[in-house]
Amino acid sequence: LQSHLKSAKLLDEIKNQTFQFIKKNPTTNEYKVQEFIRNKFKENNLRLADHSPIVAFGPNTAFIHYFPKSSSKTYHLKPETCILIDLWSRLNTHETPFADITWMGFSGPKIPAEFQKIFDVVVKSRDACLEYLKIQLKKKQMPTGAELDAVARTVITKAGYGKNFPHSTGHSLGFISPHGKEAGISYKNNQPLEKNLGYTIEPGIYLEGKFGARSEIDFYINSNNKIVITTSVQKKLVIIK
Fold it and tell me: What is the rounded end-to-end Cα distance, in angstroms, of the chain?
């Protein structure tokens, strides 16, 4: 737990530093931002994966797993551009659990109404999942991964974007990779969630050719049936002016 909390805190600090880097370099590209993050991982003795992290600008945010390359095709930041940063890592020591977060930003003084709407629906879905979990735990009932997935998915479906949420709501946090071996918050998991095991909640909406939005937090359920959120929770888009 302490290793995870330390990793989560470091990721949060690096996330803030990354948005500051983007602000100071308004014509940067996705690959340069990814390299900035990877260097910060090295400075903080965090484990590096071959292709991580995800840094996506504009229409590339519509790809769930987008990894910029060091080529001319990497997207350069422009005014009126949405930004997605997905960071996952762990302390570079033996068998410590990952932390995993996703944050959204926007480069420009005025957020387009459609993008703000999509982000708000994603946040509502995330928070509905947490609220349902709290209610069930108060009843001393441990919901299944499928139950929580359905709660998050219902919010997005009611908003008209059900077909644009093609991945599971969350996963357990592992030691070898950010995805643990245990089943996560998915329609495939009919088993109750486990206490003292880290999970993510990360609903998303992806509009092909336009943009996407995702919000990702980490949490666990302690021995007293209480939810402990271990990462920062994004409520508003980060504005890069």
Answer: 37
